[in-house]
């Protein structure tokens, strides 16, 4: 198996990931939505116990659940937290079920290298790895990041034969994954949901939509990142307003625009000779533009 198949392989539970969860804004409400579904997928015995407890029989739907595909699609604009949420969700669910796990991120690097014929191999290798790991009684999470690079609709006109074959392989592997019931979950992230193959979208147990932060979330984002700076409520709200859609032609800053561009820009204007100030943050907010929406 090629060793470059994965950008990273993480052991779960993972304290570095758990720490990143603390820094996320708006994660908990999103987590609640997908959480029960993941639990149903990864803990079939728990579902059976639930049915017996509350209905005194094993409802037929408990058996029907085995037909669901353990696939979660994370869709939304760039920098809205899809990749980081896949990691955090996997870590959280492994902790909750008290199991060890494995988080694999599939590299889509081959795309730019014109190696169309390798897509199928890549998918095969990734699922093979998942099977092996899940066989060791560990939970296996596979993230196919920027999945539109691989899972593009087969009806796309200029699609190479090899790429179509890779999508077919992917669908077949997702079907087979159901046999590992309770041990593996595949996440696919995309910021071009409309490009994903219909047969793949149909198989998703959950589609989680990611949005740019609301005004309240932007306040929290500044607050969390700048604790210790003693900004007033009014100042925080002013920063949130400056980075919102009203001040930016209808499209506000994304989570990563604020955390990884705007705030560092403000820091750069003060570092190393001056303390970070509200004025510097305000200026950075006025000068930086939100990243454009991906069509
Ligand atoms: N909910 C959040 N709260 C705080 N920071 C966030 C949140 N979501 C994302 N971020 C910040 O934005 C960065 C980018 O997030 P991430 O890589 O998960 O985005 P993405 O949706 O996968 O983007 P892309 O489509 O470009 O891959 C994170 O490293 C983090 O710093
Ligand atoms: Mg991403």
Low-confidence segments, given as residue ranges, are none
Note the total helix count: 12
Taking all residues together, what is the mean pLDDT? 90
Question: What is the end-to-end distance?
Answer: 35 Å
User: What compounds are bound to the protein?
Assistant: adenosine-5'-triphosphate, magnesium ion
The number of domains is: 2
Element order, helices and strands? Answer: EHHHHEHEHEHEHEHHHH
Highest-level CATH class of the largest domain: Alpha Beta
Category by helix and strand content: alpha/beta
Number of strands: 6
In words, what does this structure look like?
The chain has 295 residues and is an alpha/beta fold. The chain folds into two domains: 3-210, Rossmann fold (3-Layer(aba) Sandwich), CATH 3.40.50; 215-287, no CATH class. It is 49% helix and 13% strand. It contains twelve helices and six strands. The chain has a six-stranded mixed beta sheet with strand order 1-3-4-5-2-6, sandwiched between helices. Strand 4, helix 7 and strand 5 (184-190) form a beta-alpha-beta unit. Helix 2 crosses helix 5 (82-97), helix 9 (215-225) packs across helix 10 (233-242) and helix 9 packs across helix 11. It is globular. The model has no long low-confidence stretch (mean pLDDT 90). Residues 82-83, 145, 189 line the site of magnesium ion (MG).
């Amino acid at each position: 198996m090629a060793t470059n198949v994965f950008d990273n392989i993480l052991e779960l539970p993972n304290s570095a990931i758990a720490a990143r969860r603390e820094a996320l804004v708006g994660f908990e409400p999103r987590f609640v939505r997908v959480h029960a579904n993941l639990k149903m997928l990864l803990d079939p015995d728990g579902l059976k116990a639930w049915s017996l407890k509350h209905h005194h029989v094993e409802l037929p739907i408990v058996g029907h659940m085995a037909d669901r595909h353990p696939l979660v699609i994370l869709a939304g604009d760039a920098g809205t937290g899809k990749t980081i949420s896949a990691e955090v969700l996997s870590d959280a669910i492994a902790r909750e079920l008290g199991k060890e796990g494995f988080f694999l991120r599939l590299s889509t690097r081959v795309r730019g290298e014109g190696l169309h014929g390798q897509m199928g191999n890549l998918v095969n290798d990734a699922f093979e790895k998942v099977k092996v790991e899940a066989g060791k009684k560990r939970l296996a999470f596979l993230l196919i990041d920027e999945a539109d690079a691989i899972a593009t609709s087969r009806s796309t006109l200029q699609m190479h034969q090899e790429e179509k074959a890779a999508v077919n392989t992917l669908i077949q592997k997702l079907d087979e994954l159901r046999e590992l019931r309770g041990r593996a979950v595949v996440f696919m992230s995309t910021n071009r949901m409309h490009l994903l193959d219909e047969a793949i979208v149909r198989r998703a147990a959950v589609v989680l939509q990611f949005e740019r932060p609301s005004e309240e979330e932007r306040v929290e984002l500044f607050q969390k990142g700048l604790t210790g700076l003693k900004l007033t409520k009014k100042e925080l709200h002013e920063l949130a307003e400056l980075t919102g859609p009203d001040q930016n032609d209808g499209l506000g800053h994304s989570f990563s625009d604020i955390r990884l561009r705007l705030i560092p820009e403000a820091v750069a204007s003060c570092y190393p000779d001056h303390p970070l100030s509200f004025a510097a943050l305000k200026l950075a907010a006025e000068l930086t533009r939100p990243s454009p929406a991906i069509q």
